[in-house]
């Protein structure tokens, strides 16, 4: 499930993972290295790509501990209480100017463009979640939600613009079984993406590459007809998942940890930009402990002359 890009595409390394207290069948020696090489050769032969049926990540299994006698409650349920379908892709935009997005600020009476979009006249390839570019809030959502401008949140008005950069927050109730289906549509890229969720671990119920560009509506329809398989027996538990190119990954979690949790892409290739993120807000502000009266407050610390 690991592939290198660009200068790293031909690199090959191996490691021996040993848990405390494990009994080693043999020492790590040249014979072991030889057997690892043979295993790698077999894998490369049968798993030439993630779209190969013998290489599907849903074949991954959880290694049960001897003291675990029952499945977790969320894994036993045949249907989740709530489903989210999250599409992402790399999109091509024409050159930007100030009427499309205002990234400038004033410093000593001169205009500066710190954005990754500055002075680019050629078409730009941007990775986005649901055609939205994530914009970090000026203050913490947990302790200062009142300091975050409402106009900064993603909205239909923002979506109607040529380019939408906003604070992307998805609300979920507290204490529900949630399935998130990450859809790598693959119209603008042939690369898989790695996503990491803060504040939780989750079950990877299934993953598959269809080998062609797709869209989230197609995946949602297939799921409604029961065509997306879910491993409800021994799915691995992770906090990071690889979403294959032109495919999807299904993760499941139980929303018992209230707060605003960042879900972020940890890998993109051959693109520019701030990457792909969104926030999963679990529960309401009332579900969180009160903010201490002496808790530090912070903001963007920009002088009045700053435009953004």
Would you give the CATH topology of the domain at 82-287? Immunoglobulin-like
CATH superfamily of the domain at 82-287: Cupredoxins -  blue copper proteins
- Proportion of residues in extended strands: 25-35%
Mean pLDDT: 79
The largest pleated sheet is described as: 6 strands, mixed
SSE arrangement, N to C = HHEEEEEHEEEEEHEEEEE
- Overall number of strands: 15
Largest beta sheet: what is the strand line-up? 4-1-8-13-10-11
Structural class by secondary-structure content: alpha+beta
Please write out the topology.
Blueprint: H1 30-46, H2 73-76, E1 82-93, E2 105-107, E3 110-112, E4 124-129, E5 133-134, H3 156-159, E6 165-166, E7 169-172, E8 177-184, E9 193-197, E10 202-209, H4 216-224, E11 237-238, E12 240-243, E13 247-254, E14 259-265, E15 277-282
Parallel strand pairs: 1-8, 5-6, 7-15
Antiparallel strand pairs: 1-4, 2-3, 8-13, 9-12, 9-14, 10-11, 10-13, 14-15
């Amino acid at each position: 499930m690991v592939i290198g890009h660009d200068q790293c595409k031909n690199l090959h390394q191996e490691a021996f993972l040993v848990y405390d207290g494990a009994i080693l069948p043999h020492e790590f020696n040249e014979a072991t290295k030889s057997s690892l090489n043979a295993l790698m050769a077999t894998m490369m032969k049968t798993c030439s790509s993630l779209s190969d049926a013998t290489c599907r990540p849903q074949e991954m299994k959880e290694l049960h501990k001897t003291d675990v006698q029952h499945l977790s409650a969320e894994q036993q349920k045949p249907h989740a209480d709530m489903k989210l379908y999250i599409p992402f892709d790399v999109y091509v935009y024409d050159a930007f100017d100030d009427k499309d997005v205002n990234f400038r600020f004033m410093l000593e009476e001169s205009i500066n463009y710190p954005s990754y979009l500055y002075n680019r006249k050629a078409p730009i390839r941007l990775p986005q979640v649901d055609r939205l570019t994530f914009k970090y809030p000026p203050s913490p959502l947990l302790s200062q939600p009142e300091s975050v401008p409402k106009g900064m949140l993603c909205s239909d008005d923002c979506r109607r613009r040529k380019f939408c950069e906003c604070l992307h927050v998805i609300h979920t109730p507290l204490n529900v079984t949630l399935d998130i289906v990450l859809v790598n549509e693959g119209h603008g890229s042939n690369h898989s993406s790695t996503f990491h969720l803060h504040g939780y671990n989750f079950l990877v119920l299934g993953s598959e590459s269809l080998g062609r560009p797709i869209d989230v509506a197609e995946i949602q329809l297939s799921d409604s007809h029961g065509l997306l398989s879910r491993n409800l027996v021994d799915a691995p538990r992770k906090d990071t998942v690889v979403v294959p190119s032109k495919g999807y990954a299904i993760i499941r979690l139980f929303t018992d940890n209230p707060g605003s949790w960042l879900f972020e892409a940890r890998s993109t290739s051959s693109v520019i930009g701030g990457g792909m993120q969104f926030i999963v807000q679990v529960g309401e502000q009332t579900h969180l402990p009160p903010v201490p009266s002496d808790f530090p407050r912070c903001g963007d610390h920009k002088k009045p002359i700053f435009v953004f």
